Amino acid sequence: MNWKNSKRLVAIVAVVLGCTSCGNGAGTAERDEFLAGRQLVVDGKYKEATGPLEAFVTAHPNSKFCSRAGLFLGKAYLAQDDMPQAKKWFQWTVDNHPTTLEGHKCRYKLAMCAVLEEDYGEAGERFAALAEKPDGPLAAEATAWQRWLKKQAAAPPQADAGDE
Description:
Layout: H1 3-18, H2 28-42, H3 46-59, H4 66-79, H5 83-96, H6 101-116, H7 120-131, H8 139-154
Helix pairs in contact: 2-3, 2-4, 3-4, 4-5, 4-6, 5-6, 6-7, 7-8
C-alpha cells in the first residue's frame, strides 16, 4: 500500500469512528428521543410510553432505533393488558425488521402472547419456528416451551373444585 492510500484509509477510519450520527442518520437528538420513550417503559410508565414511542416511529421510520421502539411499544401495551395492540407492534417489528435481534425477540413475544391467550396450537407453531434455528438467541427457551406445551396437551383435564 502506498502512502497516499494509507492516508486515505486513515481518514476514512477516522470519519467512521468519530461519527456520532452513523447508522441510518441516527443523531444524538434522535437517540435521546428514543431513549426517553424506552425509559418510560423501563420505569413501568407503560401508558405514558406509548405516545412518545409511536411518535418516534412515525417521525423516524428509517432510524436504527425503530426495531427497538417497536419492541418496547409491544411490551408497553402488553403490560397494559392491551393484547391486540401488543401483538400489532410485535408483528410490526417482525414484518419491518425481520433480521434484527428485536425481530427475533418479537417472534418469541408473539408466541408468549398465544400462550397467554391459551391458543396453544399457535404458540406451538411459533415456538417450533424459533426452535428450528438452534443458533437463535431464544431457541433454548422456545424448545423448553414446546416441551411444556406437549405436556399440557398430554395431561388429562383436571376437574374444577366446584365439580365435585
